[in-house]
Design a protein that fits this description.
CATH class: Alpha Beta
Structural class: alpha/beta
Protein name: ABC transporter domain-containing protein
CATH architecture: 3-Layer(aba) Sandwich
Number of helices: 8
InterPro entries: AAA+_ATPase, ABC_transporter-like_ATP-bd, ABC_transporter-like_CS, ABC_transpr_LolD-like, MacB-like_ATP-bd, P-loop_NTPase
Number of strands: 10
GO cellular component, one term: plasma membrane
Keywords: ATP-binding, Nucleotide-binding, Transport
Helix content: 25-40%
Pfam family, one: ABC_tran
Distance between the termini: 18 Å
CATH topology: Rossmann fold
Bound molecules: adenosine-5'-triphosphate, magnesium ion
Order of helices and strands: HEEEHEEHEHHHEHEEEH
Strand content: 15-25%
CATH superfamily: P-loop containing nucleotide triphosphate hydrolases
Radius of gyration: 18 Å
Number of domains: 1
Length: about 300
């Protein structure tokens, strides 16, 4: 396996957002640019703490809980019909946890991630992300600040701009915010792409990349700002086993060493042992949860998988 660079310097890493794309559709370049622009605009009065998952606003007391959902419902309106995607999900995630979300297709996994990522609003229920309570009155500025400073999002659809190279795609959120000099942005994007093993594909356009490589570009884009919570919707769905290992290795270290909280939707049962907890969803509900034995967690899980 190629070397994975993990020396992430706090002082040079950017703050950026992952945009507010729908995870369900592959967006056109224009749509994608519009959404990225909308969600990366800097906001006033909502600056985050520089470390920990401290709340962005008038803070409730410090807590180890970074995600709290109480009785969350989500019903999509399709014509005159309501499609119930989430039917009363309650879930608490502590800082530094790595939660894997498994479940049947259509079970509500992406809907759940979109609500945690504040790119969709619940129909009913209570939600708090990094100490910020979110309800119908929460302003767009507050949500944008959360996405900008706290959340990283790897979408089920890639959402890369086809007219930009891999490096430009990773740079884009920083560019839209006017963060850093052009040389710094280039350096940061290059580092992020190196971390996912794409240092040799910096100047390739999405159409010149395999599906798995495109997926790794989106992972680099999500990690470039060192999010406190990484929300990943099947991040290895298009990767072969070597690249799945590479990405899992990187996430494992970020989780173990930097306490980055990870909430990851996956269908791959082999990934369970990278995680600390598994949540199974069915028909819009949490069907059951399972704690992973710390002694069985990666890197032992990886070795076992390779041998098996
Ligand atoms: N925008 C939408 N409008 C209407 N219905 C939707 C919308 N998005 C999702 N749904 C429906 O909500 C339910 C849950 O969808 P969701 O995408 O959350 O499932 P999922 O668990 O992520 O599935 P998969 O494993 O196939 O990705 C499904 O029945 C789906 O058809
Ligand atoms: Mg999904």
């Amino acid at each position: 396996m190629d070397h994975i660079e993990l020396n992430i310097r706090d002082d040079v890493l950017p703050t950026m957002t992952k945009g507010s794309q729908s995870a369900d559709t592959r967006l056109t370049a224009t749509e994608n640019r519009t959404r990225l622009t909308a969600s990366t605009s800097r906001t006033s009065g909502a600056e985050p703490a520089s470390h920990g998952c401290a709340p962005s606003h008038d803070a409730p007391p410090a807590s180890n809980t970074v995600v709290e959902l109480k009785n969350i419902h989500k019903t999509y309106l399709l014509g005159v019909e309501g499609v119930p995607a989430l039917r009363g999900v309650s879930l608490t995630v502590a800082k530094g946890e790595w939660v894997a979300v498994y479940g049947t297709s259509g079970g509500g996994k992406t809907s759940l991630l979109n609500i945690i990522g504040t790119i969709d609003k619940p129909t009913k229920g209570e939600l708090s992300i990094c100490g910020t309570a979110i309800d119908a009155n929460t302003t767009d500025d507050t949500l944008a600040a959360l996405r900008l400073h706290k959340l990283g999002f790897v979408f089920q659809a890639f959402n890369l701009l086809s007219s930009m190279t891999a490096r430009e795609n990773v740079e884009l959120p920083m560019t839209l915010q006017g963060l850093h000099s052009a040389a710094q942005r280039r350096d940061l994007a290059t580092r992020a792409l190196n971390r996912v093993g794409l240092g040799h594909r910096l100047d390739h356009f999405p159409a010149q990349l395999s599906g798995g490589e495109q997926q790794r570009v989106t992972i680099a884009r999500a990690l470039a700002n060192q999010p406190e919570i990484l929300l990943a919707d099947e991040p290895t769905g298009d990767l072969d086993s070597a690249n799945t290992d590479r990405v899992m290795d990187l996430l494992y270290r970020l989780n173990a060493e930097q306490k980055m909280t990870v909430i990851m939707v996956t269908h791959d049962p082999a990934l369970k042992h990278f995680c600390s907890r598994v949540v199974y969803m069915r028909d819009g509900r949490v069907a059951r949860q399972e704690t992973v034995d710390p002694a069985a967690r990666a890197p032992r899980a990886r070795r076992t998988r390779r041998q098996g």
